[in-house]
Every structure is written in C-alpha cells, then in structure tokens.
Amino acid sequence: MSEFSNVIPIKISFLSPFSELNTQIEFKIEIESGSTIQDLLNFLSKKFGKKFDELLYTKDHKFSKDIVILRNGKNILIDSEKYLLEYLQPNQEFVFCTFLEMG
Question: Which CATH number fits domain 7-102: 3.30.300.30, 3.10.20.30, 3.40.50.2300, 3.40.228.10?
C-alpha cells in the first residue's frame, strides 16, 4: 500500500473482453479514500480510455446489458443506482466481464 494513508487498495480483474485493455488480468490500484464505485469507474475510464467506455456503456451512456461488474462476487449492475454511490472499502475485489464469461 502507498505511504499515504488517504488511499485504499482495490483489486481489479479484467476478463474478456476487458482483458484486451491491460497486460495483466488481475491488478491492484490505489484510489482515494472516500471514493465511490462511480469514482472507481471514472478512474478506470481515465486510465484505460475510450475502449473501456465502449465496453461498459451503450451509446446513450447506459450500462451495456452484456457486461457484468462483480464486487466481492455480487453483480452490482443489478441495482446500479444503489451500488454506484456506495463507498469503496479497502481490499474490495471487482471483476469486469460478460455474462458469457460467468458461465
């Protein structure tokens, strides 16, 4: 973890098609303490750019129906309005994938 106490570690896993965005399937990031899940998505959008947004959102900025975001094993897109405002906790794990990858 960083020497600064105002950041928290978050584990990210990119499965297909997100795995094309990064050389590592699993990686850790540090994000400011007090950040929400929406802040995390904004952070990842800045880090990975337009391709991340194209995978995650439709043209009218709604979440793609093919995409799943799991937080500690639970799909947060089922009730995204509720979950996107929740604060991140240290060492939470997020998996970005499609329904097909979940098998």
Answer: 3.10.20.30
Give the max Cα distance, the chain: 40
- Contact yes or no for 11/90 (Cβ under 8 A): no
According to the model, what pLDDT value does residue 102 have? 52
User: Which of 72, 8, 10 lies closest to 34, judged by CA?
Assistant: 8
pLDDT per position as a tens digit, 25-74? 999 999 999 999 999 999 999 999 999 999 999 999 899 999 999 999 99
Q: Which CB contacts under 8 angstroms, 24+ apart, belong to 48-55?
A: 48/21, 48/22, 51/20, 51/21, 52/18, 52/21, 55/17, 55/18, 55/21, 55/96
